[in-house]
Amino acid sequence: MLVTNENKQPEDQDSSKTNQVTNNYHPHKEKEKKSWGKVIAKEGLILALMGFIIFAFKSSFFGTYVIPTGSMIPTLRIGDFILVNQYAYGFKVPFSQSFGSPIYLNAPSDPKRGEVIVFKYPLNPDIDYIKRVVAVPGDKIEVLNKKIIVNGVPIPLKEVDGKEFLSNMVDYFGKRPLRFYKAKTGEANHIVQEDQGIYNPNASDMPLMTIPKDKYFVIGDNRDHSADSRFWSFVPRENIRGRAMFVWFSMVSPFSEHEFKLRLERIGTKIL
After folding, report:
1. Going by CATH, does the domain composed of 63-266 fall within 3.40.50.80?
2. Which residues are marked as active site?
């Protein structure tokens, strides 16, 4: 047997090589590879499902936004992170508003005067804006020397000390000649500011007009530094994403054009 094995025929040598390859094959390693493939596929599916659920939740229930500009100062500061109730005016089919008008699963309600809303900017729906509703469908509105008059009644303003607001203002607005007023818009009691160094005829005076059906007139609380309905007209009902609720964090990035600010005291501030 030993001599025979030492004098194999060519076909036997081929057979020996084949046997060698066959002997190096490990079925359990192939099973491990297949098992790992199944685990990766399963984990990927779970992550994709979790991502879908998270984005669906944000689309229909609660969304988070960061305030990049000062149009809503002093109510909202640059760098405020806010939570928005996206079902405040009706429960929407997830993602339906991303592709056009939202599809509601219940009878939608309407925004009220004084509420702070997030909406798709009418001139560029890819951008989200935040302003305060001052007039609703059917209302008559005009602006006379910066005074907003709704249905013949001026929004009441009472001047207040602005030191509290100026102390946390970003550098640009902190240097402006600002005055602060306590206002009541609808049921909302809030603070607005006016810049005494600015008179823009397009914003400070506006002829009487009636708000059409399914349209809303919105203005920023930083009255002289806000691009709003005084400039680009109404917000369509289908553009509204939801109602702003509260600030959950506040920080001006050190990499922004403004000086760094960390405002931990604003955490939990309710948006009135």
Report:
1. no
2. 71, 131
Contact 252, 228 (CB under 8 A): no
Whole-angstrom distance, CA of residue 177 vs CA of residue 7:
106
Question: DSSP secondary structure string, 112-154?
Answer: -TT-EEEEE-TT-TTSEEEEEEEE-TT-EEEEETTEEEETTEE
Cα gap 149→151, rounded to integer Å: 7
| Count of positions (residues) in the chain | 272
CA dist 148 and 71 (Å) reads 17
Coil vs helix vs strand at 17? helix
Give residue 253's region: left, alpha or beta (phi > 0; psi -120 to 50).
beta
pLDDT tens-digit map of 24-55? 555 555 555 557 777 777 777 777 666 656 65
For the chain, the structural domain boundaries read: 29-60, 63-266
Note the pLDDT tens digit of each residue in 182-209. 999 999 999 999 999 988 887 899 999 9
